[in-house]
Amino acid sequence: MSFLRKRQSAGFSRGAIGRIIVHGVACAALAHSLPARADTPMTLFSPADPQAQSIYGISLFVLAITLGIFIVVAGLLTYVLIRYRQRPGDEKHEPAQIYGSNQIELSWTVIPILIVVTLFLTTTRVILGTEAISKPNGALEVTVIGHQFWWEYHYPKLGIVTANELHVPVSDDEHPTYLEMTSADVTHSFFVPRLGGRMDVIPNRVNEAWIDPPQPGLYLGQCGQYCGTQHAKMLLRVYVQSKTDFDAWVKAQQQPARRDFPGDPAAAEGERVFLHNACINCHTIAGTAANGRFGPDLTHLASRDTIASGAVSNTPENMRKWIDDPNSLKPGCLMPSMHLDAHDLDAITAYLTQLR
User: Fold this and answer.
1) Where in the chain is the domain with CATH 1.10.287.90?
2) In the chain, which end has fewer C-beta atoms inside a 10 angstrom radius, N or C?
3) How far apart are CA 301 and CA 340, in angstroms?
């Protein structure tokens, strides 16, 4: 049995419970019909891989049960309020009080227990089924390291180190992406709703998760655990690419940083300024003296769509602002201002925008 089919059988399918609930609950049906639009990028109700579909099925199941509870309770309350409302001519004394009812007490004890047990067993089935799946030999392995407030990605078999934007190929039956996650400082949480559940990223511990989206696209997420001042801007971008596009990305990322800048003296000067400042203590640029490990790897910084862990677009203007005063774009971030003059700022910006 293929890896993909095993995973789909480990949790809820969109048949069975999912279809019953979708057709029975109007709001769930509306959520199910949401397309993968740019204005709904982080919704559980538009799953993009089998693990997310399992979570989606559980979500609909829980929604149906809680909606049923609400309808019953609200209906009984409405009935009592109307049926036993005060009317003209009613006696003013307190009605007869009844103490104790075995039937009522059994009902409000046994029914909640059955509901909780049902939800527990349903969730446990999906969790155990997911964890029981072994990693295929053809899986892409990525090491994820959480930092305040950015993400570091290592592709150990490919020799690639990058930051904030995770690139993976479209998955087939035997080629999902396996993520080994740990933290360099505090507890974080890796959460891309359309690609599955949340996984805590904990110091001195390695947690594993997998994703296998069958369709290319950009999937957004963010840190799901409060980790400090800029937790809200510790964003995630997962680029799912066709095999051809992913192979091209890998080939480009495996190249050393650009060192020659014919016709661009500003970039050449920017390289010298960068390498003679404290930037090299925190950042790595492959093929140069810069080998710091505290900040993101900048070897191919210009190939990324965003900077500051997805907080702003990667444009020369934003790059200059970020270098000049990172806290102006991301207050509370741990990158200090280097207090460079305008000339050096322009030079380093010209250099970094050439690192594709």
Assistant:
1) 3-131
2) N
3) 20
Q: Could you give the 3-state DSSP secondary structure of residue 169?
A: strand
Q: How far apart are CA 224 and CA 250, in angstroms?
A: 28
* Domain 141-242 listed as CATH 3.20.20.60: no
- Check if the beta carbon of residue 341 is closer than 8 Å to that of residue 323: no
190 and 201 in contact (C-beta within 8 Å)? yes
Question: Does residue 337 or residue 7 have the better pLDDT?
Answer: 337
Question: How many other C-beta atoms are found inside a 10 Å radius of the C-beta of residue 292?
Answer: 16
Distance in angstroms (rounded) separating the CA atoms of residues 286 and 276: 16
Q: Does 2 score more than 50 pLDDT?
A: no
In this structure, of 39-48, 209-218, 243-252, 308-317, the range with the lowest mean pLDDT score is: 39-48
pLDDT by residue (tens digit) across 29-50? 333 433 334 444 688 888 888 8
Answer yes or no: is pLDDT of 28 > 60: no
CA distance linking residue 150 with residue 162, whole number of Å: 11
- Coil, strand or helix at 209: strand
C-alpha angle with apex 46: 127 to 25, nearest 5 degrees? 85
Q: What is the pLDDT of residues 96-135, one digit of tens each?
A: 787 888 888 898 899 999 999 999 999 999 888 887 878 8
State residue 12's pLDDT score. Answer: 41
Report pLDDT for 300: 95
Question: Rounded to 5 degrees, what angle do the CA atoms 75, 30, 26 make?
Answer: 25
CATH topology of domain 265-352: Immunoglobulin-like (2.60.40)
In sequence order, what DSSP letters do the residues of 99-128 get, joined into one string? ---HHHHHHHHHHHHHHHHHHHHHHHHHHH
Predicted TM-score (pTM) of the model is 0.80
- What are the CB-based long-range contacts (under 8 Å, 24+) for 131-135? 132/10, 133/3, 133/6, 133/7, 133/10, 133/210, 135/178, 135/210
Distances (CA, A) of 288 to 81, 179, 280, 292, 344: 77, 29, 9, 11, 19
Span 3-131: which CATH code? 1.10.287.90
The answer to whether residues 212 and 4 touch, using CB atoms and an 8 Å cutoff, is yes
